[in-house]
Amino acid sequence: MVRNATRKRKVTFSLSGDILEEMKGLVQAKEAWSQNRFVEEALQEYIKKMRREMLRREFAKASRDPLFLSDIRQVEKDFSHADAEAAERMT
Questions:
Q1: Total structural domains within the chain
Q2: I want to staple 37 with a disulfide (CB 3.0 to 4.6 A). Which of 33, 58, 68, 79 is the partner?
Q3: Quick check: 15 and 3 in contact, CB under 8 A?
Q4: Cα separation of 59 and 65, whole Å?
Q5: pLDDT for the residue numbered 1
Q6: Which domain holds residue 56?
């Protein structure tokens, strides 16, 4: 159910004292809205970073896959006329 994915849930984590103090300081300095929001936004950014890294690794793997590269060359060949036509319209 989609509603459960966006509903807030209370959880418990252990953080190092230094990180906790930095976060509290940023919240007090009004650089972050709240500790909860700070943690959620930090996790969102980290998850995005991890997904980008996973995608980068997949692209690197695909760039060494002969079957994938063959498919790409075939698609380029199959659509070369359409690509040339589109490029001509752009000039």
A1: 1
A2: 33
A3: no
A4: 10
A5: 46
A6: 2-90
Q: How far apart are CA 53 and CA 59, in angstroms?
A: 10
21-34 burial, b at 16+ Cβ within 10 Å, e below that, comes to eebeeebeeeebee
Separation between Cα atoms, residue 46 and residue 54, nearest integer Å: 12
pTM summary value: 0.68
Residue-level length of the chain? 91
The two three-digit tokens of residue 80, written as one number: 């070369």
List, for residues 19-66, the tens digit of each pLDDT value: 999 999 999 999 999 999 999 999 999 999 999 999 999 999 999 999
